[in-house]
Design goal:
By secondary structure, the protein is an alpha/beta fold. The chain has 12 helices and 9 strands. The chain is elongated, with a radius of gyration of 21 Å.
């Protein structure tokens, strides 16, 4: 890995100049808030533990602030960008500011939710400033589509960060918490102030670190386990006997599945670990199970 010019990263004036040249105004529809602080993107890369041998995938690179910092540290970076104008401009920005790293960069112009393969070697890390409105589905999709991703660091709305990292019994523990835990050990990895963004959002941001682990051992598929999770939290104030009645076919059938899994029918979804949900899913009446993937 070569050393790069410290001025290669984008500062506030660079960001505004690039945006003006492209006629870009950040849109709420796509949840765009561009990072304008070089120290922040370097901190994100450092916190992500990006290594010189890593193949990093980035979602929503925008004007390229984080992309350039990732290229300083990783072997290669592939960025997924849905916006036509931004996708067209990013390779030129990389070539102009880091010419000796440009051959280590690839762009995929697509909706991240539709991406199932990437150019080059399988990604080993995911690092992204995720648009607030699609952060959780994009994160879960990427973890499912690319099992080679060992480490993830995402910047999301602080409230979403809290939800993702919450454990059983926490009042914000819910569907995102359980599903993220299927793939990884999840923890909060810091906070990000509003003033490092343009435009400044009216919410705080948080960093979430995910380290890949083996999924729970179960004869139920991931889809079957996630269906039980969705049902449990669709009526989170109800007992699992009641909340899972539709999922199981009846309240007595739900109770039987819960008892067989060693879970109290009077418990609520927010009390269960992902392993317990996996056990419950195994006992869904008349379910045909295949090996977990």
């Amino acid at each position: 890995m070569s050393t790069t010019d410290p001025d290669a990263l984008l500062g506030p004036a660079d960001i505004r100049e690039l945006a003006a040249a492209l006629g870009v105004r950040p849109t709420k529809q796509r949840g765009q808030n561009f990072v304008i602080d070089a120290n922040t993107v370097r901190r994100i890369v450092r916190t992500a533990g990006v290594r010189p041998e890593d193949a990093v995938v980035e979602v929503g690179p925008g004007l390229g602030s984080l992309t350039l910092a990732l290229l300083e540290a990783a072997d290669r970076v592939t960025a997924i960008e849905i916006d036509d104008v931004l996708a067209a401009a990013l390779p030129a920005t990389v070539a102009a500011r880091m010419p000796d790293r440009a051959d280590r960069f690839a762009l995929v112009h697509s909706d991240a939710m539709r991406v199932t393969e990437l150019p080059g070697p399988p990604p080993t890390a995911l690092v992204a400033n995720l648009p607030y409105n699609v952060a959780v589905p994009v994160l879960l999709h990427m973890l499912a589509a690319f099992p080679s991703i060992e480490r993830t660091l995402v910047m999301v709305q602080a409230e979403v960060a809290d939800r993702l990292a919450a454990g059983p019994g926490n009042k914000v523990y819910g569907v995102p918490s359980v599903k993220a835990n299927w793939y990884a050990e999840v923890k909060r990895a810091g906070s990000i102030g509003r003033n490092v963004f343009w435009p400044a959002p009216n919410v705080d941001s948080g960093l979430v670190s995910l380290t890949r682990r083996d999924p729970p051992k179960t004869t139920a598929t991931r889809e079957e386990v996630f269906a039980a999770v969705d049902a449990a939290f669709a009526q989170r104030r109800k007992t699992l006997r009641a909340a899972l009645s539709g999922w199981a076919g009846s309240a007595p059938a739900a109770e039987a599945a819960l008892v067989a899994a060693g879970v109290s029918p009077q418990a609520r979804g927010e009390e269960l670990t992902v392993e317990e949900f996996a056990a419950v899913a195994e006992y869904k009446p008349a379910a045909e199970h295949k090996p977990a993937v």
